[in-house]
Predict the 3D structure of the following.
Amino acid sequence: MPRHSTAVVTWWRSLPAVWQDVLIAVSSAGIGVIAYPLNWLALFLTGLTVPEWVRIALFGGICVVQVFRRKAPIGALVAGFVIVVADGLIGPSLAVLLVFSDLVYSAVLYGPRRSGRILVTILALTAVALLGIGAASGTAPILVMLTGVALVPLLGISAWWATSVRQHMEIAEAERVNAEQLARIAELDRRAAVAAERARLARDLHDVIAGHLSAIAIQSEAALNLTDASPETQRAVLASVRENSVRALEEMRAMIELLRADSPGADEDDTGEAVVPAGLSELGTLVESARASGLDIEVRSELGDSTALPTAVDLTAYRIAQEALTNVMKHAPGARARMDLRVADGALTVEVVNELPAGADRGPGTGAGLSNMRERAMAVGGSLVAGPSGQGWLVRAVLPLAGVRA
């Protein structure tokens, strides 16, 4: 399409609908101003003599009605039909029928959905009626010409064309609505993914802070109270504090590197050295840190060096064990505890049992630790039970191995 034509189309679409209709009516009137003096558009004469201004007034009236083609399409069609009948009595003119065909087009396009079928039916019945009247009155050739030349081509094609345009507009509108719904669904999915990622990061942050930093706080307090202890004991406690500090920094750096790698502006060449996520291979360090905090813990593991665990299960088991030991150190310092790790029936079971000192809270617990452990277990298709057991507290996680990515 030439550039000037594109500019005209853009300008036309930018106009309000009412001004578009006004310009269409003015264009129709301009055609009539040119055609009527030349007597080009009269189909035939009926023998009824009327002043010329009557014919001009009828054409001017239907042009005025055309201004309302979009605002009130059915009302404009009815008013136009009255003018067409009056014009037909004095000799139908093609100019009036052309404007009326636009009113038919507008009524089908902008009116109620059923208007198209109704108008087509009315046009068919009108054509049959005119042919019958012509046969009965002896003026059949004239009415056949009027029906075949004016009504069917102009009005029938106008109604058909408007129906086709309306169907395309409705299809386009339905596609637009579908696109908006898909975009809304995509946005909701994106928000859900962001919320899930934030929840995962919150669990990881809680594990790092509540695990390592809680151990640091407990061990630091123990170091302050070891005034009469041997230098070796004090050195062991401080070494454990340092180990927990280093591990906390490493895991925080791993999370920051992950966030940087996933960010839109991350530099692909500046990813740094990857830090391997913690797993059960680090369980010995975790247990030693708990012992340095004063916890008397026994570990029973049926996992051998050849036992291969899915990465997600390995990390989940480590985090649950870390959180369980952290809770023991916070709520039952110095208590005896036992940790069992075993694989049976296609699942890894992590079980931590500890004594509860007299007066300790034996309720179900309401902190973030238990909910984080439960969410981690559920994320890999497992389950977690935590609560009083005999004279102590039990945490048991069952993590299935099948169907989890290695």
